Amino acid sequence: MSASIFYYTGTGNSLWTARKVADELGDAELFSIAECKYENKTIDSGIVGLVFPVHIWGVPTPVIQFVNTLKGSNPEYVFAIAVDAGQVSNTLVQLKRLMAKNHLNLSAGFEIKMPSNYTPWGGPGPHEEQHKRFELAQEKIFRIAARIKEKAQMPVERGPLWQRILYTLIYYISFSHVPKMDKKFWVDDKCNSCEICRKVCPAANITMREGKPVWNHRCDQCFACLQWCPQEAIQYGKKTPKYGRYHHPEVLLKDMLKLR
Are strands 212-215 and 206-209 parallel, antiparallel or unpaired? Predict the structure, then answer.
């Protein structure tokens, strides 16, 4: 079995998940969606996986762009894993429809719950709760890998009906505004001009001006800049100065810098 797993990550949850799935499958290679050029491509692997975070209860822009490049591919089996903090909503249904438009079949779609990296809403929660989620995620990954090895055709996982209606509406209302939502980012006096924020941004949205980061309205709201700042100098809105930061503990800054 040969598998190609494409992942999109900002704070490491999806990278960790993709690594664990690859380990379970054995013959699998990982590719960063942030490194992929958005031009039509053909993938030779019989099994293709997409691992990505849920953004505003839907599929993030980079994943949509990537799927739109796969029109010429014809993999035997495609799976997806949507990583979220507990509300997958209609994300995998949305992805399945998007893939169908590109003449691709999403054979199975799974949800993995991880600690939240959306700091403006309070962050990832207590460490005990985080570790419990890691354990449950690992257990589910064992089961997911078994189904992938079987090439099981399965309905995609989805949230309750009210969630799929309400949150999907919010997603579509918000979607076109996401690139400019970076106007709420700001930097405090702790900034030491290290440029890590610029280097980890998967959208190449940050430039430096007089030693300070400037956001250029191409944001995907992944929060890599805020979470990886070693000085915790990057803020979003009024509440983040009082909240802690989060990235997956098994993903290091050097791992993220290799992706850009």
Answer: antiparallel
Q: Sign of torsion, CA 215 218 220 222?
A: negative
3-class SS shares of the chain: helix, strand, coil, % to 5: 40, 20, 40
Q: Which residue has the tokens 């809105």?
A: 237
| CB-count exposure of residue 163 (10 Å: 0-12, 13-18, 19+) | middle
Q: What is the domain class of 178-257 according to CATH?
A: alpha beta
Superfamily for domain range 3-166: Flavodoxin domain (3.40.50.360)
Report residue 61 as tokens: 């822009």
Residue ranges, the chain, pLDDT below 70: 1, 37-42, 259-260
Distance CA 62, CA 226 (A): 19
Look at residues 172, 148, 204 and name the one whose alpha carbon lies nearest to residue 90: 172
Tell me what pLDDT residue 239 has: 93
Question: What's the pTM value of the predicted model, to 2 decimals?
Answer: 0.95
SS3 4: strand
What is the pLDDT, as a whole number, of residue 35? Answer: 86
